[in-house]
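Sequence in, structure out. Go.
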Amino acid sequence: MQDSTWWFVVAFIVLILELLTGTFYLLVLSVATACAGLAALLGAGWSLQLLAAAVVGAIGVFVLRRTRVGKPQAEESQRDPNVNLDIGQTITVDAWKADRTARVMYRGAAWDVELAPGQALSPGQFRIAEMRGSRLIVEAAK
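Output:
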C-alpha cells in the first residue's frame, strides 16, 4: 500500500475513536493525519508527511485551546445538576421563618431550606437552585 493509504486509514480510525469518545482533540489528530495523507498524495517524502501532520496538529490544538470547546468549564459543583441530581427538583414550602429559612420534607427526610436572595417570602412551590452542605437553597418555581 502507498503511504497516503496508510495515513487515510489512520485518520479514519482516529475519527471513529473521536466519535466514540466525543473529544475534539482526536478530531484535530484525525485532520492532521489526513493532511499528512494529502502530502503523501502530492509526492512529499516521509519527513514532509510527518512535518505536515505535526504542524496541522499543533495549529489545531492551539486553536482548539483558544476556543470555548477546549477550555474546561468552571461550574461550581453545588449548582451543577450533572453533579447533584437534586438541583432543579421542586419542593413545597408551607411557611417561612423570619430569617428566610424553613424546614421541609424532601425525599423522605427533613431538610433545612434557605430562600435565595431576591426572592419573596411566600409559601408555595420552589426549585432547588443549589446545595450548601445539607441546606437546600431554593428560588421560586417558574
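Check: The chain is about 40% helix and 25% strand. The helical segments are 3-21, 24-41, 46-66.
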